[in-house]
Design a protein that fits this description.
There is one protein chain. It is built from 57 helices and 56 strands. The protein has about 1950 residues and is α/β, with parallel strands linked by helices. Strands 34, 35, 38, 39, 40, 41, 42, 43, 44, 45, 46 and 47 form a twelve-stranded mixed beta sheet that branches. Strands 32-52-51-53-54-56-55-49 form an eight-stranded mixed beta sheet. Helix 9 runs parallel beside helix 11, helix 10 runs parallel beside helix 13 and helix 29 crosses helix 30. The longest helix is centred in the C-terminal third of the chain and has 24 residues.
Length: about 1950
């Protein structure tokens, strides 16, 4: 039996009775029905529950002993101890203290380091044994049977396990205490013996944590002036309730017969300020530990404050650092002038105790207290017409007994006071430990000041009070703070401030003085002994009616010798009602309203209304009206309804304003989509490797929406029209609705099935990136654990269950995107979303510059608020004072009815009366408000003003579904009686069901939207465009539904104004968010003859004329009258239009007027309009309008020009969630009488409750609306009441950081358990948050994001490869003879020897190179010159985008699981160590020893041979010719590279299909480090430093020489092993660094004739190709083997012959043995492969090209040849130097260039060789003779290559006459006799190139050139190099 502390006298002792009673209480707590519990049980339980609020306290460890002493008496104050006989232990069991009966040790000291299995839902606690006072025994107890930090909500009974022997399932504490050998002499009680929570410390050892806060188990009396800890104020994380209940919330009863004991579990609002300190439970500590940590600051004496734990803020948030002490790095944005309470009135009416700060206490029952009980008088509610709300203040609070259902007690103020006591904690950063917190007396006095200044219609707001306390405290300590900031940190601050503290004796007097000025709205009661006498007096005054004018009673009990006791009673009827209703959770609110409707409590209200109307009951009037008008309904009303809606031959008027918006992406949406994409890329690029974009081939997605049918259909519609499914390739052309539904999931009961499919897909398709889009993400953030409570609906907690499940979190291919307009609840201290992964909608202006030009202006909350400021046009936000006055009056008359019921009934009454008034019952206009009359009249008249019957939409927001149903029924009935059923529709918008509208209206919509489908029905509100209707919008929260452009009025007068949090408020106002054409002002300016250049005037009152267009009379609309703005925005007092509507509401509208009186204005308007038409407009003027001249002729019959401007699209409405935007860039020729047109040109008008209006429109000193500083969301709470103010200047990012610091989730929030030791770990790496204002187009943005993400992924899996046809095909030596069959796999050596060599270059990259002549060729001179125009010479080469195959080579950006190890980046392996090895060999031609360096990773050392003692590199291992292995490539691959450390394709893992291979990167010395960094697991061959500026020729030269030297070493090494030299494999592969994929052509020769064959090309691995070539018969007889370059235009002719003897490029296999005496030219930069091919062929060696293999080369934009820049050596400024300047005369003053001489030579000859060989230009039949080398002389000159070597193969040149001779660095093989064999044209030119001038002269003499050639001195040149750069010298001459 729970100890009850100071319980009621006559406490029941019968055990059986208690058991039954407890069971019934528990059952009722768990039940979900509304059956009230007996009053007695209610009193019993709740009195007990409240004990903690008075007597519970918690002290730090140093007070433990004191607690021990007091414990016996304290816990059992009202019942004497019962003697208790323990059951004897079983035979043979262990009875040692500290051990269980099984003999296992349970002492904390013994088992603190052992691993203890704790089942889910259990906690480890420490039990105290009386025999072991110094030890704790470890037990595992089900946390449901433990209390929360308020000492409440523990289930009765016990459930525990023994951690020693592991025995489970102890159901009784008695049984358990026997098992663990407690050996008690009194009745075992869990409260007495389970003392502490046990937690693991940083070392993982189990230690004693905070005290378990049992009720009544604490000491009595107060410990200090800070008062006891009413731990009611803390929320226990796990248990917001007694297992199935939270600390219950009050439910005001409908009458006394229903004692509101229906305790629902108000999980969703635990007091924010109350529970702030349970905010952050760091690390693995038990949440309970926060009691010790956090209460300490608030509850110990002020003097202790300076010496608390954590005296200074740590750098990081350590365990135990409580959140209310911010770290020193935080910036404070507080105002220094507190203006303490002086400005409160300006802050407007405020709501208090928002749901977050609601009373957490038993329903309607008072807090139990100490001392004498206070009796609550009977009939209190009846007499006072309101339930007083008592806020407990400081000190003790007395018991209440008697009629306790008629009062409500709240701990909210107590919490606020207590939090404010810990203010100074935050200022420890100033070292101001002597600063005292604000005193209790001062707190109370400030509270009185605050209440005194509240207006009669304002309600106290706890946030206001917190700010006042904080400002007061700051002001009083400003001097110390400033002094500390300026002084040296060690200096002591000054003494506390000079402000004289208020003493408890002065307090009542000062409070009375303050209250004396307020006309008795605040009444002070001073009592001398206890609060009980003050409360009794207050009740007495209430009963006597002496507090009628009083709203607040402050009761103070102050005496000199002890701290004050206080409480504040709210007695004002309005304030008490608002405060008590604010304590209901949303679900309780619904239930209460439902209960009042079901039980008929509202009938009294109905009967009251019927007595109001002197003409009799409204229903009777309606019936009478119906009878009279049957059969002859007013023609004025139905006139427009049945008008023809199409243009007929006679030109009947048709509304031209109905446009269907095309689906298009706005600039904003594109910008946001790109921001999302860049965030995704940054996640992928980060080193964490949380997202490997390179591994995904396509996108899939699932959009989760709230369970609203309309939102669901709306999302389906956007998805359908975006075309995204086709674009992503997810669906085929013929899309069905069923297919689209696969991608959108309603979060309802069926969601789990769809989600399961999604998860299965994600697991089965690892190469698909799945984007999980959580739209409207602030909806249902309930924790899945808490959704198991009976009160909650099935769907709550679904988001947590699905989106936060382990599969989603761990799947590497799922990215979650939360999309919301109200991200605050996802921005707490425990959010899953990193602040870096937040994307905020960009603002349209930056420093006055329009960032994104859009033709529409968005109207959101800030624009609505701005419209209420004076100087603006008609305010868009209004309240209805007459409605509010009536509601207030009725509230006093019917105190038991919930105000939502009263407000709804009053508003329905107003609408009914307004409808009747508009229909002719003019007397009814006195029974409605002006605002409602205006709305109704405009609604009813709207369809008459449009030839097609378009009208306005009025949204009537009724959150409570049962009330919405009542309203619908009533309004429907009134409409029927008034015969308006064809005039406008009434739609009941229920989130759980679709839209139902009448057949007549469906037909109208189909005509307007040109819909043929017979079965079509509107499924979204957007499809109701133009339909005159009242949409009754129900549901507790809007769920993302968009409204059409015809929305004119948004009536929010019925929103639940008592439970306000920022999200709730903003999402209600978000319904009215709207896009307006940004050309509005221009149009108005034209109409009103205001100059366009005067923006001030335009934004002032001109559009009020448009506003007034709500009445019937056109003349009145056009009146030039300008309205004066009244200060109030109460429409009743200020709206001229409303007043006008009273006089004009029943007159019929005048006929439509033409647009203007003069043609001039028509033209003018047209011209101006034309200028403003947006380029992207869907409807262009020219298409639909006659030219202006025609218009002039047509002015007589202007109506005939009213061409319908509609879009041809069948889409019924616009594309994205921004679709409520009008597109008004089409020009209309009539004065639009269409109300819809007007509605869509201006934002809707919003009507709010006065309370909400005041909060929205009041701003703080920075201009921030008060609504922004409210608690952001009902399931979060403030981390501390001492927090800086938000500021208007905060960006979205700063606001997010503010909430991330100052809010924490409540236990019911899904992020509550997201806590880790390391703060960063709590963020999920693949989770993003997109936030933007409501209705701005977020859906369109994220669909666009999917589109560009998909394109990027495709782009990542694609590559640009060169796709060029082979060149010079027509010069090919055509022969009908084929040497091999098309299907031959390998060349036949003998046959191949017979094949002629094809000298012509066919590689398209050499299109600009000189043609090589092999015999006398007659080339059409145009062929070469026209092959590429000169200006195209430098343009990009042709490429094709190809999808990467699984056999592609990759650059450094590719990461996949398979090749991590290959790349050397796998974190599981040690970073690869490499060793540097020198390798030297001598080479006679260079005349010196060559020193090369190898960098060899440890993992690749097996490819090399090292000397045993010194580990010197000896050689690279080579295989044998005879080796055969499937998994091995015999030829080592060398890839020379420069400038491509990131982009070179060196990852051959996939290309080689995982086969073992040796790959060496050949790099320049200066690039060694960067290549090693990017490719740590690759072997590098580092060229000597002298080659740093060399070209590719040097690399090729050294690769070949090294390989030959290595072949010799290997032959010597293996000869010793008995292997013949010729058996060592002689081939190497030299590959470009841009070879990306390889293909094989498969030939099928199965046709009848040999010539019949088919072929297919497929992508194959490089392994397959190399192994095929290596297996060629007699392979060692070939010197060079290569393959074709890929082209998409390959034709059969090219592959008829499978093998060619021709040039090979890019990817070659080189036989280093055969080519031993043929070298690459190490000086060359370009064409070195052509030069080498010609040398190899002339040496009589075989070059074979496999035509059935081809290589794809990727276009790489960096590095390679591009890395050579020719610039001036003198100046650093980059000056473009033309190739003509690359050579100069020797000894000239020419600017020298910083470039190798050889490069200058090659470039010069490529572009300017015609200067040396003028006769050769386009003279292809007389080529230039080039001896022993091939140099590119440009495409217009042909060359003929000859070798001077003896026995070389040369072409027969006897028939050729040459036009020039080129001698380049000729060696001793070139002799005079050799040159004399050739014939030259007369005037042919000669060019001799040598290393220096001396050798130039020697060459001329040695070759006897002067015999046939004439030289002049001026014909000598040099490359433009400085002397130290060794220029090359030229000599030119002419043939004699």
């Amino acid at each position: 039996m729970l100890s009850m502390g100071n319980s009621y006298a006559g406490q029941l002792k019968t055990t059986r009775f208690e058991e039954v009673l407890h069971n019934s209480i528990e059952a009722s707590l768990r039940s979900n029905n509304l059956v009230p519990r007996p009053v007695f049980s209610q009193l019993y339980l709740e009195a007990e529950q409240q004990l903690s609020s008075l007597e519970a306290g918690s002290r730090a460890d140093n007070e433990e002993e004191e607690e021990e002493e007091e414990e016996e008496e304290g816990s059992e104050s009202s019942s004497p101890p019962v003697s208790y006989q323990m059951k004897p232990p079983p035979e043979g069991c262990c009875t040692t203290d500290g051990f269980c009966q099984a003999g296992k040790d349970l002492r904390l000291v013994s088992i603190s380091n052992e691993h203890i299995e704790v089942p889910s839902g259990f906690l480890l606690v420490g039990a105290k044994s009386p025999n072991l006072p110094d030890h704790l025994l470890v037990c595992a107890v089900d946390k449901r049977f433990l209390p929360d930090d308020n000492g409440r909500n523990a289930l009765l009974g016990f459930s525990g396990n023994c951690v020693g022997c592991g025995k489970k399932g102890f159901c009784y504490f008695t049984e358990f205490s026997n098992h663990i050998n407690l050996k008690l002499t009194t009745q075992p009680k869990k409260q007495k013996h389970l003392k502490y929570y046990l937690v693991r410390n940083a070392q993982g050892a189990l230690t004693k944590g905070s005290v378990i806060c049992w009720k009544g188990a604490e000491f009595r009396g107060r410990q200090s002036s800070a008062s006891t800890c009413s731990s009611t104020l803390f929320q226990l994380p796990e248990s917001s309730g007694l297992s199935g209940s939270t600390s219950s919330e009050p439910l005001p009863p409908a009458n006394a017969s229903a004692p509101a004991g229906t305790q629902q579990t108000a999980i969703d609002h635990i007091p924010s300020t109350a529970a702030f300190s349970s905010a952050v439970y760091n690390g693995k500590e038990s949440p309970k530990q926060q009691l010790m940590k956090n209460n300490l600051s608030a509850l110990t004496r002020p003097s202790v404050l300076g010496t608390l734990t954590n005296s200074g803020p740590p750098k990081k948030r350590h365990k135990g650092w409580s959140p209310e002490s911010p770290s020193s790095t935080e910036t404070w944005n507080l105002q220094l002038n507190p203006q303490a309470p002086n400005r409160i009135k300006n802050d407007g009416g405020s709501v208090s105790s928002l749901p977050h700060s609601a009373l957490v206490g038993p329903a309607s029952s008072p807090m139990v207290g100490s001392g004498e009980p206070v009796s609550v008088p009977d009939n209190l509610l009846k007499i006072c017409k309101a339930k007083p709300v008592i806020f407990k203040g400081h000190g003790n609070f007395p018991y209440l007994c008697g009629n306790i259902n008629d009062v409500i007690v709240s701990p909210l103020l107590y919490t606020c006071y207590r939090n404010s006591q810990s203010l100074s904690r935050a200022y420890e950063q100033y070292g101001a430990s002597t600063i005292q917190p604000i005193s209790e007396e001062m707190q109370l006095l400030l509270t009185v000041y605050y209440l005194v200044q509240l207006a009669a219609d304002q309600v106290p707001l706890i946030e206001d009070l917190e700010q006042i306390f904080m400002r007061c405290w700051r002001e009083s300590h400003l001097s110390e703070i400033r002094q500390y900031q300026q002084a040296v940190p060690q200096a002591l601050p000054q003494l506390p401030s000079q402000i004289t503290p208020v003493t408890s004796a002065q307090l009542p007097w000062l409070a009375g003085l303050a209250a004396s000025s307020c006309n008795d709205s605040v009444h002070i009661i001073e009592c001398s002994y206890s609060l009980a006498e003050g409360l009794s007096e207050m009740f007495k005054l209430l009963i006597e009616g002496k507090l009628v004018k009083t709203n607040y009673v402050v009761i103070i009990c102050a005496s000199r010798n002890r701290a004050i006791d206080s409480c504040i009673v709210i007695t004002g009827k309005y304030q008490a009602r608002v405060l008590s209703e604010s304590m209901l959770s949303p679900s309780d609110y619904q239930k209460e309203v439902n209960y009042q409707l079901v039980t008929g409590k509202v009938e009294t209200l109905g009967s009251f209304f019927s007595t109001l109307c002197p003409e009799g009951d409204i229903d009777l009037l309606l019936e009478k009206f119906h009878q009279e008008n049957q059969g002859h309904i007013s023609s004025s009303l139905s006139a427009s309804v049945n008008k023809p809606t199409a243009v007929n031959g006679a030109g009947t008027a048709v509304c031209t304003s109905y446009e269907i918006e095309q689906h298009h992406i706005r600039p904003f949406q594109l910008a946001v989509a790109q921001k999302l994409l860049s965030h995704i890329c940054s996640i992928a690029d980060s080193s964490t490797q949380n997202l490997d974009l390179g591994s995904f081939e396509k996108i899939d997605f699932l959009i989760c929406v709230p369970p609203s049918e309309v939102t669901y259909q709306q999302t389906l519609f956007h998805l359908w029209h975006s075309g995204i499914l086709l674009e992503l390739g997810l669906e085929k052309e013929h899309l069905t609705k069923q297919r689209v539904e696969q991608y959108v999931m309603k979060l309802d009961a069926e969601a789990q099935i769809k989600f399961k499919v999604f998860l299965q897909n994600s697991m089965q398709n690892p190469h698909t990136l799945f984007v999980l889009i959580h739209d409207h993400a602030h909806w249902d953030l309930m924790s899945a654990m808490h959704s198991l409570y009976p009160q909650t609906e099935l769907s709550t907690g679904l988001v947590d269950r699905l989106l936060n499940c382990r599969e989603v979190k761990e799947a590497p291919n799922i990215v979650t995107l939360h999309v919301t307009s109200f991200p605050y609840a996802l921005q707490t201290q425990q959010t899953h979303i990193s602040p870096y992964n937040e994307i905020h909608w960009p603002s349209s202006y930056s420093n006055g510059v329009d960032l994104y030009h859009e033709n529409k202006k968005y109207f959101g909350l800030s624009e609505f608020i701005e419209s209420t400021l004076s100087g603006h046009s008609i305010p868009l936000l209004r309240y209805d004072s007459s409605f509010e006055a009536m509601v207030m009056a009725l509230g006093k008359r019917f105190p038991r009815l919930h105000s939502a019921v009263i407000r709804t009934f009053v508003l329905i009454q107003h609408y009914s009366a307004a409808m009747m008034a508009v229909c002719g019952l003019s007397q009814m206009k006195n029974y409605t408000s002006v605002e409602t009359l205006e709305i109704t009249q405009n609604l009813i008249n709207s369809s008459r003003q449009c030839p097609s019957g378009h009208g306005l939409m009025v949204v009537l927001r009724i959150p409570c579904i049962p009330l919405a149903a009542v309203a619908y029924e009533r309004l429907y009935n009134v409409r029927e009686r008034l015969a308006l059923e064809d005039n406008f529709e009434i739609i009941l918008g229920n989130p759980n069901s679709g839209i139902t509208i009448g057949k007549h209206f469906v037909e109208q919509l189909k005509i307007w939207q040109k819909i043929e489908d017979v079965d079509w029905r509107p499924q979204t509100y957007l499809e109701l465009e133009g339909l005159p209707c009242i949409l009754i919008f129900s549901g507790m929260d809007p769920q993302g539904e968009s409204l059409p452009r015809s929305l004119r009025y948004c009536d929010l007068r019925l929103i639940n104004s008592s439970s306000l949090v920022r999200t709730t408020l903003e999402q209600e106002l978000g319904l009215a968010a709207y896009f307006v054409s940004s050309e509005i002002h221009t149009e108005k300016a034209v109409v009103n003859d205001v100059l366009e250049s005067d923006p001030e005037k335009l934004s002032s009152t001109d559009n009020e004329d448009e506003e007034i267009a709500t009445e019937g009379s056109t003349s009145e609309k056009r009146s030039p009258l300008k309205r004066e703005r009244s200060r109030s925005h109460d429409s009743a007092s200020s709206s001229l239009s409303s007043k006008a509507s009273i006089t004009a509401f029943c007159t019929e509208s005048s006929p439509p007027q033409a647009l203007s009186n003069s043609t001039e204005e028509t033209t003018n308007n047209y011209e101006r309009q034309k200028q403003k038409v947006d380029k992207g407009a869907q409807t262009t003027i020219s298409k639909h309008l006659p030219p202006v001249t025609e218009q002039l002729d047509m002015k007589q019959n202007i109506k005939s020009a009213q061409v319908s401007i509609t879009s041809s699209s069948s889409s019924p409405f616009s594309s994205s969630s921004s679709s409520s935007a009008p597109a008004h860039n089409s020009f209309i020729l009539q004065t639009s009488q269409c109300s819809m047109t007007k509605a869509s040109k201006q934002p809707p008008i919003v009507f709010l409750p006065k309370l909400v209006y005041d909060i929205i429109t009041s701003t703080d000193s920075s201009g921030l609306p008060k609504s922004s500083s409210l608690l952001p969301y009902h399931s979060v709470m403030w981390a501390s009441s001492f927090r800086p103010l938000m500021s208007k200047m905060m960006t979205c990012t700063e606001q997010s950081l503010y909430y991330r610091q100052w809010t924490v989730p409540k236990p019911i929030h899904m992020d509550y358990n997201n806590r880790n030791e390391g703060r960063m770990d709590t963020f999920h790496p693949r989770r993003l948050l997109l936030s933007g204002p409501p209705q701005i187009g977020k859906t369109g943005a994220y669909l666009q994001f999917l589109s560009i993400l998909s394109r990027m992924l495709i782009r990542l899996t694609e590559v640009d490869v060169y796709d060029e046809e082979e060149i010079n095909i027509n010069i090919k030596e055509e022969s009908d003879r084929y040497y091999h069959q098309p299907g031959d796999m390998w060349p036949d050596l003998e046959t191949f020897r017979k094949m002629p060599f094809d000298y012509t270059i066919h590689d398209p990259k050499y299109e600009d190179a000189s043609l090589i002549c092999s015999k006398l060729q007659t080339i059409n001179s145009e062929d070469r010159s026209m092959s590429r125009r000169q200006e195209d010479m430098y343009t990009c080469r042709q490429t094709t985008r190809m999808r990467l195959s699984k056999y592609a080579a990759y650059n450094t950006y590719h990461h996949c699981e398979q090749c991590h190890q290959y790349m050397g980046f796998n974190p599981r392996y040690q970073i690869y160590e490499s060793t540097l090895h020198a390798f030297a060999f001598s080479y006679s031609m260079l005349g010196e020893e060559i020193q090369l360096h190898f960098i060899i990773p440890k993992s690749k050392e097996h490819h090399f041979v090292f000397s045993q003692p010194g580990r010197q590199l000896e050689s690279m291992r080579l295989p044998l010719v005879t080796d055969k292995s499937e998994d091995y490539i015999k030829s080592p691959t060398f890839t020379p590279t420069t400038g491509r450390h990131e982009h070179g394709l060196f990852n051959l893992y996939h290309a080689m299909d995982g086969a073992s291979h040796l790959h060496v990167l050949v790099v320049k010395e200066y690039e060694m480090a960067i290549y090693k960094k990017y490719w740590p697991n690759h072997i590098m061959l580092v060229l000597p430093s002298i080659f740093n500026s060399a070209g590719v020729g040097a690399a090729h030269f050294l690769i070949k020489e090294l390989s030959y030297h290595n072949l010799e070493l290997e032959r010597n090494r293996q000869e010793e092993l008995g292997i013949k030299p010729q058996d060592i494999w002689p081939f190497i592969v030299i590959s470009d660094d841009s070879c990306v994929m390889w293909n094989a052509i498969e030939v099928d020769c199965s046709g009848d004739r040999k010539s019949d064959y088919t072929w297919t090309e497929r992508n194959v691995s490089l392994k397959q190709i190399l192994q095929h070539i290596e297996a060629t018969p007699n392979v060692t007889h070939y010197a060079l083997i290569g393959m074709r370059k890929w082209s998409s235009k390959t034709n059969s002719a090219e592959i008829n012959e499978p093998f060619s003897c021709c040039h090979v490029h890019d990817f070659i296999m080189l036989n280093v043995d055969l080519t031993q005496n043929v070298q690459y030219n190490q000086n060359r930069f370009t064409c070195d492969d052509v030069d080498f091919n010609l040398r190899v062929h002339s040496a009589g060696l075989l070059i074979c090209r496999f035509n059935h293999f081809n290589v794809m080369k990727k276009q790489v934009a960096v590095g390679g040849q591009r890395s050579f820049h020719i610039k001036s050596k003198v100046s650093d400024t980059p000056v473009s130097i033309s190739p003509a300047q690359y050579i100069c005369a020797p000894d000239s003053k020419h600017t020298f260039l910083a470039a190798p001489a050889q490069l200058l030579l090659e470039k010069y000859l490529q572009y300017h060789s015609h200067r040396f060989f003028p006769l050769s230009l386009k003279n292809y039949s007389h080529p230039v003779l080039s001896v022993d080398c091939y140099l590119n002389l440009g495409p217009q000159i042909a060359v003929c290559y000859v070798s001077s070597r003896p026995h070389s193969l040369n072409i027969s040149s006897s028939a050729l006459t040459f036009s020039g001779l080129l001698l380049y660095l000729c060696d001793s093989f070139v002799v005079a006799s050799f040159l004399k064999k050739f014939q030259f044209l007369k005037g042919a030119t000669l060019c001799v190139i040598c290393q220096d001038r001396n050798s130039l002269r020697q060459t001329v003499v040695r070759l006897e050139l002067e015999d046939e050639w004439q030289f002049r001195l001026r014909d000598e040149f040099q490359t433009a190099n400085a002397k130290e750069d060794r220029p090359l010298f030229f000599l030119t001459g002419r043939h004699i």
